[in-house]
Prior knowledge:
This protein is mainly alpha-helical. Helices cover 60% and strands 6% of the residues.
Amino acid sequence: xxxxxxATMLAHYKQWVDQxxxxxxxxxxxxxxxxxxxxxxxxxxxxxxxxxxxxxIWQAHLEHREHGYKTRLEVPHPELDDLxxxxxxxxxxxxxxxxxxxxxxxxxxxxxxxVSGDRSVMTAGAMLMHVVNHxxxxxxxxxxxxxxxxxxxxxxxxxxxxxxxFPAYTTx
Length: 172
């Protein structure tokens, strides 16, 4: 079980790291973001859209509503600038949502349906943890693609975020 303090920190971390990543990606040669690569999501923009789609799906679960996605690999925003705006709005939603929670609401079990049609139950806090972990995993794939360009990827580590952007979390 996570508490409100941790949920808030994780939501802010996700927003911070997404912002850093999009700023860095904007500095790359434009064709690199859409260039097909040997990865599950085919490209940097495909991978970032996958993160966004999964965020949308879990947002819908947290809001107890249908999400409408038929696949996790949709590309609703093929242009980096459009995706950046959508992702940052999504990050704002998760930060706002986290700030409205209580320790009890984060432990609330929520029934949902996977894209595959399978039914399951998770707590709201576990859903947030999944969103953050899922994005971190796929950002690692994006960082690997930076090395193929070659370009220097941004620093996205949690300890750097805590030191630079959220020091209140480290001091109690």
